[in-house]
Every structure is written in C-alpha cells, then in structure tokens.
Specification:
Elements lengths: L3 H9 L2 H8 L6 H9 L8 H12 L10 H4 L7 H24 L1
Helix pairs in contact: 3-4
InterPro entries: RuvA_2-like, UPF0758, UPF0758_N
Protein name: UPF0758 domain-containing protein
Organism: Candidatus Woesebacteria bacterium RIFCSPHIGHO2_01_FULL_44_21
C-alpha cells in the first residue's frame, strides 16, 4: 500500500492532479491539452498525443480553425477527441467575443 506522500507524489504526474493542486495557470499547453483529450489510446497516453499535436501545430493557437479531418490525421485523434478540441476553441472564441463586447 502506498503511503500518503507517495500518493500525493503520483498525483503530480497526472495533469488533473497538478491542476487541482496548483491551479490551471500552472499547467503547460501539453498538460491542458491532455486534460481536454481526457484519455489516450492503446499504447499512447493523452500526454503523448498532446506532444504530437503540438509538434504538428506548434502551440494551442496553431490549432485554431484546423478542420476536424485535418486533426484526425494525428494518430490517436479520432472524431471524439478532435471534436473536443474544436469545441474548446469555439468556447474560447465566444469568451473572447464577450470580453470584447464588454470593453
């Protein structure tokens, strides 16, 4: 059985645990994207898929407006995960629009 210290240390290895402990601003783009993806696939973690996405598109901004079919060319990104990314960007776009309208 793991000690409490070991359990806490292992939580740091997972982006969700890091978010809970340190807040969302402490996460890298890789970790944020892994949380959005939710899970990996057989033999490939959500973090590994995030690495491949960021290798392809440079950063989260580079993903803006990328068509679903283009996203799904990345191994491990099927329709559901690509849809989550597209929804994240649409939500972000709408938030920015509200902010612009408020100023």
């Amino acid at each position: 059985m793991k000690s409490m210290a070991d359990q806490k240390a292992s939580r740091w290895k997972h982006p969700g645990g890091k978010l809970r402990r340190m807040g969302p601003s402490a996460l890298s783009e890789r970790e944020l994207l892994a949380i959005i993806l939710g899970s990996g696939t057989n033999g490939k973690s959500a973090l590994k898929i995030s690495d491949e996405i960021l290798d392809t598109y440079a950063n989260l901004r580079g993903l803006m407006g990328v068509p679903l079919k283009e996203l799904m060319k990345i191994k491990g990104l099927k329709e559901v995960k690509a849809t989550k990314i597209a929804a994240m960007y649409e939500a972000s776009r709408r938030i920015l629009k509200h902010i612009e309208n408020d100023t």
